[in-house]
Amino acid sequence: MSHLRLNLEKIKAIIPHRDPMLLVDEVVDMMPEDSITSRFYVDPDRDIFRGHFPEEPVLPGVYTVEIMAQTSDILILSCERYAGKTPLFIGIDSVKFRWKIKPGDTLEIHSRISYENTDKAIVTCSAEVYNGGVLACEGDVTLAMR
Fold first, then answer.
1. For residue 72, is it left (φ>0), alpha (ψ between -120 and 50) or beta?
2. How many domains does the chain have?
3. Which of 17, 38, 61, 119 has its CA 20 to 30 A from that of 105?
4. Annotated catalytic residue within 3, 17, 52, 110
């Protein structure tokens, strides 16, 4: 299999997410059935920063987890057996937040398939989010394809 790059339009053809909840801008490298690297620019104009926190804005951890899940969704839904399915977020394990993510940061997200139950269409991916080359968050995302 060859490595793939995907722009925003190709991403939208794979996953159902749309603004304001589409949290992947591009896929810089994907090895189908195995691993993916994506990028996301944390736009300072996102409404979430008005309240989290006005004096010192920081991206909420739930957004970081969603960024890991969406990157994993793209990888999984690129597999022929799951194409066209809806990814349902059913679990997150071993999450560690290690570095702040602020408005204006560009994140690089790595995810790889670490477990799959094809009979139940459940897949776990191990994901990492890097901010300026520093590990900001890591965890295992479990998704059901329905």
1. alpha
2. 1
3. 17
4. 52
Amino acid occupying residue 30: M
Instruction: Please answer whether residues 131 and 62 qualify as being in contact, where contact means their C-beta atoms are separated by less than 8 angstroms.
Output: no
Any idea what the CATH number is for the domain that residue 68 is in? 3.10.129.10
How would you write 3-55 as a 3-class SS string?
Answer: CEEECHHHHHHHCCCCCCCCCCCEEEEEECCCEEEEEEECCCCCHHHHCCCCC
pTM of the model: 0.96
Which residue range(s) make up the domain with 48?
4-145
Q: pLDDT, tens digit, for every residue of 33-86?
A: 999 999 999 999 999 999 999 999 999 999 999 999 999 999 999 999 999 999
Instruction: Please give the single-letter amino acid code of residue 112.
Output: R
Question: 């589409």: which residue's tokens?
Answer: 22
Would strands 106-117 and 134-145 be described as parallel, antiparallel, or unpaired? unpaired
Task: Please calculate the CA angle 24-113-21 and round it to the nearest 5 degrees.
Answer: 20
Give yes or no: 52 in active site: yes
